[in-house]
Every structure is written in structure tokens, then in C-alpha cells.
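Same chain as my last thread, 331 residues:
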Amino acid sequence: MVNPIRSEIDFDAEGRHVGYLRLPHSVHRSAYGWIPIPAGSIRHGDGPTVVLMAGNHGDEYEGQILVSQLLREIEPQWVSGQLIFLPMANFPAAQAGSRTSPLDGGNLNRSFPGDPQGSPTAIIADYIEHTLLARAQYLIDFHSGGSSLLYDGANMLAIQPDDAGQTTRLRALLGAFGLPRAFLHAPNPLHSATAAWRQGAISIVTELGGAGTVQSRLLREARQGVLHLLGHIGALAGPLVPKAAPHETRFYRVSGASHYVYAYEHGVFEPLVELGQRVEAGQPAARIHFPETPLREPVTVAFDAAGEVVCQRAMAAVQRGDCLFHLAEPA
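reply #2:
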């Protein structure tokens, strides 16, 4: 089945081109309308194809700024190969400032490989995987904690390769990006990173702060890192490529469910530790308070494993099942 999205951009054309991916969307307000997904391409000569994506989740703003900035700043003559830009990949969600799409409730990063006959989010996922990633060797997907989570600084995630040679190459790429932390994890078939892997591309995902805010320091670090990485893989040359990565990257692992802490009550969340802090198994992590039942004592939630606190909930109000903390261990 052919995907119904039609691009205003000729992705085979040399030079810089900007326009919209048109997703047909017939509604009461607009019977013959389409959803405008912003996109850009800079193509010049031979070299790798890199997809630079943001707005996968609409309430994660750092990448939306950065991808748009890079599209404006990079001149075609500095490129070897092609850079494809998606600053608001799930446009309905990004326009609404929501993690998920208001049209269908779709979470784009839980929708791959998508469906060309499905809901708007599923159609977008199918187009990204089977049209854009199918022509790419690299995906850089910019995420943050969004509205509900806050990461400690700038972080990267990548799928753990199967063999030592691939692991060495991946670590070199993550080191060239140079954000402070890199988490290696197992593939999730619904994520963009695994969509890239299915198409033969290497993926690096960022987690930059969050809490519905934008931190200029993290934007600067991510910009320096991605430009240095593009230079490292031979996709970019010229004055924008920095001489060094922003940091020396430290590698971490996440040991499954034991590295996450969840609320089991409806109430108000009081964290008892700080981002970046080292914690031990059994250590109190948070208290859940119950102001609507003021004589009820708060419930204390503990960590199931040791690790470093790399992410915590940004909102005080919680319900059963909400994530409070995310830990990682140096690898």
C-alpha cells in the first residue's frame, strides 16, 4: 500500500529545499485539507544521508529549535551527501504542545513501523520509516523529558549492538557527539531507533532536560555535539564544525524495571533525592502525600536497585503508574 503523504520537496534534488509533507486530512473545517508537516533537505555531492528529527513528541522543544536552526545555518556547499530535517515530525502533537497527537491520541515513538492505511500518527510513522529512513545511514532523533519528566543535563541513547565490532563503532559515534551520558539499551520495535535499525541506519537519540522548558546550555551542547558528529562521519565540513565534542562521554546501562520507580498511590509527589545523586537499593526515593485526607500519613517509596538518578518526574501531582525516577549504572 502506497503511503498517502506527498512531499513538496524533491529529496533527490541538489541544494537546500524547504516545504511540507502533505498528509491528507478531511475534516468538517476542511473537506479537502492536509496536515502540513515541515521538512527540509540539504543535498550536495556524495556522502551519507542523515535524518535529523525533532517533535517526535510534541512537548519536547529543544530539538524543534535545534533542527530548525541547523536547517537555516548549514550551507549546501558544506555538505557531502544529504541532511533531511524534520523539526516537527508529529506535527499535530507539536502544534498542540502535547506528547501525543490530539487527532488520534497517537504517540509517534510507539507507532513504528506504522501503517499507510492507519490513523494520522501511524501514517507519519510509516512515511518516516519506509520513505525517509530507507534512504538514510543515520538518524539523530532529538528528545527531552517533555512535560512530565526532567533529565539530568544532556544524554544520549542507542541500541546495544550484537557484536564487539559494531559496539566499538557505535561508541566512537557517541563519543563524537559527546554529550555527558550515553545509555545503551535493547531494541523496542515501536521506537524510531529500531525503525532506523530495521532500515539499516544507525540511530542516536538524545534526552535533553525537559519539564516543558528549554535550557540554553543544553541547546548549545547539543548543537556542538551534532555538528561535531556530522563532521566525524564526513557529512559536513566548513566553519560550523567544531574542533572538539562538548564533553567526554560516560557510558551507562539501564537494568530493566529495577531502575525505574513508580507511584502506587494518587497524591502529591515529594522527591527525597536529587538529580545526579548516587542511590542504593532500599533507599527512600520519595514520599506520596494525601492532602485530601490530611490525617493520613504519607507513603514512602524506595529504590529497588542502586544507580545514579538520571531522570525524575517534573510534576508533583501523581497517579498510580506514574514514573517518579529513572536510574542508570556506569557500564
